[in-house]
Design brief:
By secondary structure, this protein is an alpha/beta fold. It has a single domain, classed as Alpha-Beta Barrel (TIM Barrel). It has 8 helices and 10 strands. The strands form 2 sheets. Strands 1-2-3-4-5-6-7-8 form an 8-stranded parallel β-barrel, surrounded by 6 helices. A two-stranded antiparallel ribbon has the order 9-10. Helix 2 links the parallel strand 2 and strand 3 (57-62). Helix 3 runs parallel beside helix 4 (93-99). The chain is globular and about 40 Å long.
Length: 215
């Protein structure tokens, strides 16, 4: 099966259209975060999400950590998918499911060490997909992705092997290492942001090179 590509940090309707035209299966729209690139307003997320044609998925990246706040955040933007980038309080996934059953839930696991494997296995029971990213939610200013750095792909591979739901791989993936990442981890999808941008803007040439590298 061909790996799905998610282009994250989309900041305009034009960028969304460009990513989709080149083959993106999903786009990421970044809500308020403690750090990292691509943050846009909820109003803009809503405007962009409305233009995304099925079956392309629109991901809301939310740093909210309670079910109530995540549901509230989603109501403002109406994306097809919610990407929870921090730990969810008391693992209240069922509360979100009951409120918005038609919306897919993707939990980010920040791959720090072997403990990330057990965390992913447990959480995989509650969500539609796991997204493996670099970052560290334990720092004083949480780093919840968007680092542009790779992590230990051996751990990511173990996670993918031990869960039964789709796995997205993120963190420092670019045209030069994407083939190696796909062959090593064998993810359902890959997620990119900074490596397909120039001065913060989505770069058509870099998109072409990326998709060429995985074709």
């Amino acid at each position: 099966m061909k790996v799905k590509v998610k282009i994250c940090c989309i900041s305009s309707i034009e960028e969304a259209a460009l990513a989709i035209a080149h083959g993106a299966a999903a786009i990421g729209l970044v809500g308020r975060m403690p750090s990292g690139p691509g943050i846009i307003t909820d109003e803009l997320i809503h405007s962009i999400a409305k233009t995304v044609p099925p079956p392309i998925e629109s991901f809301l990246l939310t740093s909210e950590t309670t079910a109530e706040k995540i549901i509230e955040h989603h109501k403002k933007v109406n994306t097809t998918t919610i990407q929870i980038v921090d730990a969810l309080t008391d693992r209240q996934y069922l509360k979100i499911r009951e409120a918005i059953p038609h919306v897919k839930l993707v939990q980010v696991i920040h791959v720090l060490d072997e403990n990330s494997i057990q965390e992913a296995i447990e959480i995989s029971e509650f969500v539609d997909a796991i997204l493996l990213d670099s970052g560290n939610p334990n720092l004083s200013t949480k780093v919840l992705g968007g680092t542009g750095k790779t992590h230990n792909w051996d751990i990511s591979k173990k996670i993918r092997e031990n869960i039964s739901i789709p796995t997205y791989l993120a963190g420092g993936i670019n045209k030069d290492n994407v083939r190696k990442a796909i062959e090593h981890v064998e993810p359902f999808g890959i997620d990119l942001c900074s490596s397909v941008r120039t001065n913060g803007q989505l770069d058509e040439l870099k998109l072409e090179e990326l998709f060429k590298a995985i074709s």
